[in-house]
Amino acid sequence: MSQSSSSFDLIEAVGRGYQFFWAQRMSILKIAVFPLLIGLACYAVLTLLELPETDLRQFIIMLPSYFAEGWMVVFLVRAVFIDGDYKPHAKGFLRADRNMQAGILLYALTKYILFGGVAVLLHYFGDVLEMLNEQATPDPDTSLKISIGIIAGAVVSISLFRFLWLYIPVAVGISLRRYVRAAAKSSTALQMFGIWLLCFFPFAITFLMLGSVILSPFQDQDDLPLTIEIIVITIQMIFKIMINVATTVCMAYGIKSLMSDDSQLKS
Known about the structure:
By secondary structure, the chain is mainly α. The protein has ten helices and no strands. Helix content is 75%, strand content 0%.
């Protein structure tokens, strides 16, 4: 049964996404163990090498982790799309076909682009802040240019935000051309950004509160005990995976609603 009109509904997507997250929590826990272990192993290598944050070699080391995460989120995306209207295609949507492989690859590629972008921004803003600190009185023109750059960057980032989720339509065989056309409205990009905020902040705040409780006895120490550091890193990666799962599932429900025409899917 198809919907008569297609739209991206933030409230419905978040509500159904969190409902799915809670109903399938045990299944999610089982499939999340693999990317968690791979991520911890990759992070251990990064810690040993002590590479700076702007070093792109970090991505090469984290690449197995990104592919493991990609397998997890793509599996969940396909589980979302076989729910309800698409149950007859369950077997076709869950087998590891070319669409699933392309979705995993595109997820890893998206991570690479984001990693490179963040590294460039950290390098650029590091130089800018160093330059401003060297000036006794900041140049008004320089401050204005920085402010304009930040605003322009925010606008461009939100406009391009819809392209971060290309792995979702790809994983279920939706044409990228149709997806881009359907998600072309600026309101859709804003709602997608809203979904990310509603999925990121609850888990991030919970992690910060939990971290402060764990670290409070060690505030006067320069270095954390190794056991505590491992516990904090593990909890951080667990929350990172939870944010990833929640965001992907909610976004998948939004895109499923947006691409509500059955003819846009291939089994």
